[in-house]
Task: structure prediction
Amino acid sequence: IIRNVSLQINVGEHVALVGKNGSGKSTIEKLLMGLYSPNAGHILVDDIDIGQLDPAELRHNIGYVPQDVSLMYGTLRDNITLGAWHAEDEQIIAAAEKAGLMELINAHPNGLDLQVGEQ
Result:
């Protein structure tokens, strides 16, 4: 249960949520990304309730690293563009470079279309 939380993040600010296991970090992140709905209160972005915003647009500027990372069944491209279905090839390549995937992509004949998933 998370109670009495007030948080303001200003334009251009980067915020990391850190704390002990079970302290609510993941729950707050999921609330901010619209994956969970609050039981009470509101989450506002520019004075607009996040329930009124396009989820893809909301998540566009949020980086989320879950505690348990897993691959979805699909292609590398699918996994890289999760939540950003409108991403251009240049953006996908830039993300792959940042994630250190270019060696794998370049070594495999299917490149970004390599099928991946949890084994």
Observations:
- The mean pLDDT is 85.
- The first strand starts at residue 44 and ends at 45.
- Residues 1-69 form one domain.
- The two ends are 34 Å apart (CA to CA).
